Amino acid sequence: QRGVDVNGKDGNEETPLMHARNKTMADYLLRNGAHPRDRDKQGRGPLHHAAKRGLTDLIPFFVLDVNARDD
């Protein structure tokens, strides 16, 4: 299978999901297995990156169900 590793990390341990700039990109990455709980070297996840960039329309993609289990 060819393509991009949706969970691949760069030198700062940032994933493609942390670089998502719009809903289409975030949705695509999540539907293809991107991990919304990954953290970069600074301990920041996709939610932090979206908020820092003012991409408030992405926040619902990263707010997880508080009752969800991480088994």
Rg (CA only): 12 Å
Number of helices: 3
- The average pLDDT value, as a whole number, equals 88
Largest sheet: none
Strand content: under 5%
Structure, described:
It is a single chain. With 71 residues, this protein is mainly alpha-helical. It is built from three helices and no strands. The protein has helices spanning 23-31, 46-52, 59-62.
In short:
With 71 residues, the chain is an all-alpha fold.
Topology:
Blueprint: H1 23-31, H2 46-52, H3 59-62
Characteristics:
single chain; 71 residues; mainly alpha; 3 helices
